[in-house]
Design goal:
Chain lengths: ~325, ~290
């Protein structure tokens, strides 16, 4: 099992290197930070522009591999480089990382758990009301883009506030930002306030995750339900619920573990939409701004961030996979 | 299930009959057709075009003159939505054809010829699966500003085909051993012709279903990227750019947002229904196992 996990870790690390390098090279060759300086009025002399770009390691006159080498050297020392506004990328990520992570963690944890539970329940109650409801819900939700779901939830929240009479400064659910400005997040009132900001955006991600995982879990569970070992388990005297959970659900979770890892990059994309709609200053917003500003180092750093998230999620699901599948656990 | 079909019925007509027997598939197909015709025919008959301003009606709610209302500049929302739907439909269709063709060709060649070609193609598939497609297309988006939207479609399709290619490869590996393929090979038919004449037609059901589902996923991907300005660029209009432009107005001027968003959801839902119906029609037993 240790060998399996080690091999997976190695593989996932290669993925991080490949996708980050690809993103850096593409960003460095396709984005044009020079235009930002040349567009100024009056245009600065070329030497000044070169010097400024050199200081940022974004000068397109230097071969891309040299720039890449310099950036990687920095990354190994824990320095992700400078943004195009000559501030530190590390500080920017420090500031924004937890904003996005909070959203993504709540959304993915709740969504996975509820989705798996709903999917398994739907499969057990195949063709009953609950199963039909889940199937229709998944089918419809997966046909609506994240943007539209986000806007619908935001407006529903505003509507709810108005109906319940929260029209003043204090709201039941907040639809902009992650904390009311000037509030200390580490007081009781601040925590409540932060929670009231978190509800709607994470609900968007949760609902989408439920639809996604629910659908796959239902299919995986249906595959297992007809199997002989489940009948044997009941024949030897296990109660139905017990057999369904320890023998059925556990087996049906194995394919889901792999799905979870690959879903994480998409979760970041989903979070990007939610951040834009609910005005959160997280990593998604940072990415969109960085591409628009031709901020090469930031773009590469964010890709690295996403890749490391995928690595962590991938490794966790490999651990889950190994724990669930005796063939892997014993070998 | 009892088939009343005469023994001479071709597989195509059998599938078609099974497809049309389901209410969902008919509803889906009818919706797609209605939206398709509305998108392409309505600009010929409506008074307002997508690039015309009505300076007597700014931000007017839906009315007889402007079915979907107008924007703050006096653009007719109905004309804009139909124009956007044209673009979304064409992006979905072209992208799906490109993506499914690519998947079929790469998968079949890798499976049939094996060896070095197989290794190279599989590495390519794995590499593309690893890259975060949304981030990569966004990074590349400044390069196709001011150029044709076809580049954007090719990029979208370029990140869409890999999973199907793997499935096609697996199917090719098993078809390769079947007698009719071996017979063709021993008659001296070249490999590429066996692929196009014998192997791919034998998995046409999978490819048709895949292409249908790809249409809706590509439309959704287009919306996501265009929402941030990484996709279709002005003066082109797509459902994605409309949703991006008017998402902020959803509360005060709901018609600006809900009409394009509603058309989008109806379109994607209908295409998915068609895909689902096709899957059941091609393989009626599949529903018993999974759906």
């Amino acid at each position: 099992m240790a060998r399996f996990l080690l091999r997976r870790l190695l593989y996932l690390s290669v993925l991080v290197v490949v996708s980050t390098s690809a993103a850096y090279v593409l960003a460095a060759t396709q984005l044009n930070p020079r235009a930002r300086y040349e567009g100024r009025n009056p245009p600065p002399p070329p030497e000044v522009v070169d010097a400024a770009l050199d200081a940022l390691n974004m000068n397109d006159k230097i071969p891309v591999l040299t720039r890449f080498g310099r950036w990687v050297g920095g990354v190994f020392h824990g320095d992700l480089g400078r943004t195009i506004e000559n501030s530190s990328v590390n500080e920017e990520i420090d500031r924004r990382m937890w904003v996005s992570l909070r959203l993504m963690l709540v959304g993915s944890l709740l969504g996975t758990l509820l989705g798996v539970a709903a999917g398994a329940y739907g499969a057990v109650k195949q063709y009953r009301m609950a199963d039909h409801a889940l199937t229709v819900f998944s089918f419809v939700t997966l046909s609506i883009p994240a943007v539209v779901i986000g806007v619908l939830f935001k407006n529903a929240g505003i509507g709810l506030n108005n109906v319940l009479g929260f029209t003043g400064e204090t709201k039941l659910l907040y639809t902009t930002g992650e904390l009311t400005p000037g509030m200390d997040p580490w007081t009781w009132a601040g925590m409540v306030n932060r929670f009231a900001h978190l509800v709607l955006p994470s609900l968007v991600l949760t609902v989408m995750a439920i639809a996604f995982y629910g659908r796959y879990q239902r299919n995986a569970m249906l595959d297992v339900l007809g199997s002989d070992f489940l009948r044997t388990a009941q024949a030897k005297g296990l109660r139905r619920t017990r057999a369904l959970i320890t023998h059925g659900l556990r087996t049906a979770l194995i394919p889901m573990a792999t799905l979870f890892a690959y879903q994480f990059a998409l979760l970041f994309v989903g979070a990007t939409f939610t951040e834009r709609i609910f005005g959160w200053h997280g990593m998604g917003e940072y990415f969109v701004d960085a591409v628009i500003k031709s901020d090469v180092n930031s773009v590469a750093a964010i890709t690295l961030f996403v890749a490391v998230l995928v690595l962590i999620a991938g490794f966790l699901s490999d651990v889950a996979y190994a724990a669930l599948d005796p063939r892997v656990r014993v070998s | 299930m009892t088939e009343a079909a005469p023994a001479t019925a071709s597989r195509a007509s059998l599938v078609l009959r099974r497809f049309l027997r389901q209410r969902r598939s008919i509803a889906g197909l009818a919706t797609v057709l209605v939206l398709f015709i509305a998108a392409y025919v309505s600009p010929l008959v409506t008074t307002w075009q997508y690039n015309e301003l009505d300076i007597t009606a700014f931000l007017s709610p839906p009315s007889g003159a402007h079915w979907f209302g107008t924007t703050q500049n006096g653009f007719d929302m109905f004309a804009l939505t139909m124009r956007g739907m044209q673009k979304s439909l064409i992006i979905g269709l072209v992208g799906a054809i490109v993506s499914t063709t690519l998947a079929a060709v790469v998968g079949a060649f890798a499976g049939y010829f094996g060896g070095v070609l197989n290794a190279v193609l599989l590495t390519l598939v794995d590499l593309l699966l690893v890259l975060p497609s949304f981030l990569i297309i966004a990074i590349l988006s400044p390069t196709f500003h001011g150029k044709t939207w076809l580049i954007f479609v090719l990029l979208l399709a370029g990140f869409q085909w890999m999973v199907t290619a793997r499935i096609v490869r697996g199917l090719t590996l098993s078809l390769k051993e079947r007698e009719f393929v071996q017979a063709a090979r021993f008659m001296g038919v070249p490999g590429w012709r066996i692929i196009f004449r014998h192997i791919l037609p034998n998995m046409s059901s999978i490819l048709i279903i895949d292409a249908t589902i790809n249409v809706s996923s590509l439309i959704l991907a287009e919306v996501g990227l265009s929402f941030f300005g990484f996709g279709v660029q002005p003066p082109d209009v797509s459902l994605g750019t409309l949703i991006g432009d008017y998402a902020g107005a959803a509360l005060i001027y709901p018609w600006e947002f809900y009409f394009p968003a509603g058309c989008l959801v109806a379109l994607v839902l209908a295409i998915n229904l068609v895909g689902d119906g096709l899957r059941d029609a091609f393989d009626p037993n599949a529903r018993m196992r999974v759906s």
